[in-house]
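FORM 12-B: Structure-to-Sequence Request
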C-alpha cells in the first residue's frame, strides 16, 4: 500500500473512534454504558456489545462502498486495517488519559478480537469484490435468520449483569488517582485547606475535572491558548484564565474559588436567608460544586465522588462544613434543619 492509502485509512480509524463516542453519548437513554468513574449497572448488555462490535463493521462496509462509488478503489486495498487502526487508537487514548484502570480488560480484548476477526472476514468475503458490496436479501433463509437474530438480541438485552467488579475497578481507580494527587499536590492543598471535608471536595472536583480533561486534552487547550491568546480553561482544576497557568497554579486558584463560595454560603446561612435550604453536607457539596459547573448532573457526580473520597481517605474525620460553634447555635433553632 502507498503512504497515501495508509494515511487515509488511519484517518478513517480515528474518525470511527470519535463517531462511536458520539453515538454512545446520544444513546444513554437506550442503555449505552461509557467509561465512568462511577459504578453503573449495565442495563443493555446486548446493545452495548452490538454497538461496539457491529458499528465498526457497518462503518467498514459503508466507507468501502463510498470509495467504490466515486472510483477510489485503491483506498479499499486491505481495508480491514481501518478497524485495526481504530482499535489501536482507542487503546492508546485510554492508556494516555489514565483510564486503563477503569477498563474491563477481558471484555475489551473480546471486543477488539471480535472487531478484527469480523473486519477481515467481511473484507475477504464481501468488500474485496466490488460486486458483492451490497447485501442480498432475496432468499427466505436470509430473512429467517434476521428474525432469529433480532429475537436473540431482545432476549439477551434483558439480561442484567452484576456491577460488583465494575464498582471495584472504580474504587481502585479513585484510590490510586487520589493517592497520586496527594503525593503530588498534597502540600499545596493542606496548606490552604484545613477542613478535611473541604479537602475531600477539592480532591473530588480535581479528579472529575482531570477525568473529563485528561493531560492530553489539556495540552491541546494550552496550544489553543498560545495560538489564539483568548481566555481558556487551563490546568488540572480547569480554571479560566487570560494568562498561562500550570496545574499547581490552577489548584491554588481553584481552591480560592471554592473557599470564596464556601464563605459566601456560610454568610447566607448566618443571615438566615437559606435556613429552609440547608440540609447537611449534600447542600454544601452541591452549592460549592456549582462554583465550577451549574449542571445538575455535574454537581450530582461531585457529590457521589465526595462521598467515596470521604469514606476512603477521611473515614474518621470530625470536621464539619459548618463551624462547630455555629452548629450548636443553629441546631438550637427550631425552624432550622441541620
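FORM 12-B RESPONSE
SEQUENCE OUT:
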Amino acid at each position: 500500500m502507498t503512504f497515501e492509502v495508509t494515511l487515509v485509512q488511519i484517518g478513517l480509524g480515528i474518525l470511527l473512534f470519535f463517531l462511536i463516542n458520539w453515538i454512545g453519548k446520544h444513546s444513554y437513554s437506550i442503555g449505552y454504558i461509557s467509561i465512568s468513574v462511577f459504578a453503573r449497572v449495565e442495563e443493555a448488555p446486548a446493545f452495548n456489545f452490538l454497538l461496539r462490535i457491529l458499528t465498526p463493521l457497518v462503518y467498514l462496509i459503508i466507507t468501502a462502498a463510498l470509495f467504490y462509488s466515486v472510483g477510489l478503489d485503491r483506498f479499499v486495498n486491505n481495508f480491514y486495517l481501518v478497524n485495526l487502526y481504530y482499535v489501536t487508537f482507542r487503546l492508546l487514548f485510554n492508556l494516555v488519559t489514565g483510564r486503563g484502570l477503569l477498563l474491563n480488560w477481558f471484555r475489551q480484548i473480546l471486543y477488539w478480537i471480535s472487531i478484527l476477526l469480523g473486519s477481515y472476514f467481511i473484507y475477504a468475503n464481501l468488500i474485496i469484490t466490488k460486486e458483492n458490496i451490497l447485501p442480498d436479501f432475496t432468499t427466505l433463509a436470509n430473512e429467517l435468520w434476521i428474525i432469529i437474530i433480532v429475537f436473540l438480541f431482545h432476549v439477551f438485552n434483558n439480561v442484567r449483569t452484576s456491577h460488583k467488579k465494575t464498582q471495584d475497578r472504580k474504587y481502585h481507580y479513585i484510590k490510586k488517582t487520589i493517592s497520586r494527587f496527594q503525593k503530588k499536590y498534597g502540600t499545596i492543598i493542606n496548606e490552604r485547606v484545613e477542613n478535611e471535608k473541604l479537602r475531600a471536595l477539592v480532591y473530588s472536583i480535581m479528579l472529575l475535572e482531570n477525568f473529563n480533561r485528561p493531560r492530553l486534552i489539556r495540552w491541546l487547550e494550552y496550544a489553543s491558548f498560545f495560538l489564539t491568546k483568548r481566555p481558556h480553561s487551563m490546568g488540572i482544576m480547569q480554571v479560566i484564565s487570560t494568562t498561562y497557568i500550570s496545574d499547581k497554579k490552577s489548584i491554588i486558584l481553584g481552591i480560592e474559588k471554592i473557599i470564596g463560595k464556601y464563605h459566601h454560603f456560610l454568610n447566607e446561612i448566618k443571615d438566615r436567608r437559606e435556613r429552609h435550604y440547608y440540609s447537611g453536607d449534600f447542600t454544601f457539596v452541591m452549592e460549592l460544586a456549582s462554583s465550577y459547573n451549574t449542571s445538575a448532573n455535574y454537581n450530582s457526580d461531585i457529590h457521589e465522588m465526595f462521598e467515596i473520597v470521604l469514606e476512603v481517605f477521611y473515614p474518621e474525620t470530625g470536621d464539619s462544613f459548618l463551624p462547630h460553634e455555629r452548629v450548636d447555635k443553629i441546631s438550637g433553632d427550631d425552624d432550622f434543619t441541620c
